[in-house]
Specification:
Length: 371
Amino acid sequence: MNVTRRWRLLLGRYAEGDLPLSSEDQEVEDALSYLYDREYEMRGHRRVRPDGGGTLDPSHPMGLHWLKRSREIFPASALERMERDAIAEYGINELLGDPQAVETVHASADLAAVLLRTRGSLAPETSDGVRALIAKVIAEIMERLRPQFTTALTGSTALRRRSHHASLRNLDWRGTIAANLKNVDPQSGTMLVSDVRFLAGKRRRNLNWQVTLLVDQSLSMADSVLHSAISAAIIAGLPGITVRLLLFDTSVVDMSYLAEDPIEVLMTSQLGGGTDIAKALTYAERQIDQPSRSVVVLITDFDEGGSVSALVAATKRLAEAGVRLLGLASLAGDASPRYNRQVAARLANVGMEIAAMTPDHFANWLAEVTQ
């Protein structure tokens, strides 16, 4: 960042006459002004619109919107400081303490993640408001994900044999493409489908599997903790599967007794601290009594703060014992993978399957390994 741009963003819109703002920095300027123009108020300046009308005093719901939007604009190091400032400046304590105001807030996964990260900075009287907003988010996500997990883990599985029962659900798209390759027009590349294939199905037999969700609860993993708690609750309600839910940083907290209550899991979790994946994986290893019927799902960004060699050794022991190991890498806000690829590659070399995917795809992945 050049010196002129840095000073423009530092001084804010009051420097507009001498240091014009580039168009690409307008959103950054707006976010910074929304929070730090209060310093000018303390010196007697009024927050007025550029056209001279009205004030720029922030509303409470706008403050929550700012928290969500800033997460997409600023790096984590800057955002953590700004969120702490925002808690004090925006009056969010008052908003979350007002049940009627909470009802007006649009709840989203991003907002829930922000509240989880900043919960320790909020006043005690906001706990009901935080719980209510997180409950809204959980209900929406569970409604969307439950059918996918239920179908994948207990529903019909396709068999590679032909069926005359024609339905979209039973469509064998791979078989259909293969059967109609001879009908491709070489000029246009268009395929004329004359032979549509369908698959027969049968009920899954998903008996006596132990699924351990081992979830990194470092500060950057708020989204993953949220979706992991929801996934654990859905899986725990399915027949034939025992769920263990373990949250870790440099210590391990066994939340299995709350696995069916994602709200309580999230309200109890403590985001932050370091990361010792090796210690967490070793703890999970001690809980396994039937390795060949066990799946360990490690949900992390693979930024190991402890011994990488110990982590590789624990992974190798579990794989050699017959445990299915899935490494679910964290995703950024735009759903792009965000994880330490070097560490993940070392774990893949000793038996852990690594992928970065959304929770709905995770349901199918888990179903594949518990066939």
